[in-house]
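>> received
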Amino acid sequence: MTKVFQERISKLHDFLTKQELDGVLITSPKHVYYLTGFFTDPHERFLGLVIPAQGEPSLIVPALDRQAAAEASSVQTIYTHTDTQNPYDVLKQALPNGLTKLGIEKSHMTVERFEAMGQVIAASSFVDVEEPLREMRLIKSADEVARLKHAVVLIENALTETLKTVKIGMTEMEIVADLEYQMKRVGAEGPSFSTMVLAGEKSALPHGTPGTRQVQAGDLLLFDIGVKADGYVSDITRTFAVGEISEQLREIYETVLAANEAAIAEVRPGVTFAHLDKTARNVIAEKGYGEYFMHRLGHGLGMDVHEYPSVHDQNEETLRPGMVFTIEPGIYVPGVGGVRIEDDVVVTETGVEVLSSFPKKLTVIG
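>> returned
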C-alpha cells in the first residue's frame, strides 16, 4: 500500500477506534479513489471499500473492474461480483464476523441499498463517517495542489483557444460546444460542471443556462468553466467585453475586480472566511452595488467542484495552510448585465498562492 493511501486509511482507522466501530464501509467512488487510488464509475453496480477494526482493508468491485482495481488500487484483497450475483453476499464475506457497529457514508447510502445490505448484515448501529473524511480532504497535500494546478492550466488553455473563435452572431451554446471540445483536446477528462457561457443581459443570471442568445456588440460575455483531470477539478470565471461597452458596465467590472483582488490580498493563515467575504462585499457595497452581490464569496475545491468549506460572512473558521477554495465576487444587475471574476487559491504557510493565472484586466473580444 503506497504511503499516502496508507496514511489516509490510518486516519480513518483512528476515527473507527474512537467510535468503537467494528468496521467502516466506503461506497462513494470518489472516496474509494481518495483512499485507494482506484477510480471507477460503477453505475448501478456495487462498489465498496471495507476497513475492518482488525486486519487489512479489502475492495469489492464489479467483476469487469477487477483488473483495473488490481493495477491501480493500493489494497491487496479484492472481492468481485458478477451481474447475476448478490453483491451483498460478497460484502458479508469481506466484513468482520460478529459485526454490530458499522461506519458508513450516510449522504451516499441510498435507502434501497441500506435495506438490501440489512438483509445480509446483522449490524444494529450505523455511524456517519463523512466528518473525518471532510476534515481529511480539507487540507490538500502538495500532490493534490499540483493536480489542482494542472486542472487550472487545462481550463485556461481551453479558454484561450475558444476565445480565438468567438465572434458576433455566435450563440452561447455554440461557444459552449467549442469550449468542451477544447477541454478534451488539451487533455482534460471533461467539464467539472455544466459549462456556463452567458451573453448580454443573461450575464446577470448567477446560475443562468446557455441557450440560443447570440453574442452582440456591447455585450458582456461571462464564462464560468472548469475541467476534471487526474481526479481533481478547476473552476474559474472570467467576463469579457464584446466591443465597446457602457460606462456602467465598465464600472461594474472594475468594482468586481477590485473586490476580487482585495479578498485575495487578505488570504493567510489565521484569517476567517467571514473576513474574506466581508472584505469583498464592502468593496462592492461602497460603490452602491451591495444588493446585486447575492451569493457567498466562494467554496472549497478539490475532488468536487463544490466542497467544504463555504466562504461566507457567517463562517468564523480560520484559514489553515493547504486549504483550497474559490474567490468569486460578482455584481448582477437585472436587464443590464453581470460580472463575476473567480480565482482558485491555496493558503500557504505565509499567505496565498493563486492557482489561476488567466488575465483579469478587462479584455475586449469579438
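>> The longest helix spans residues 142-163.
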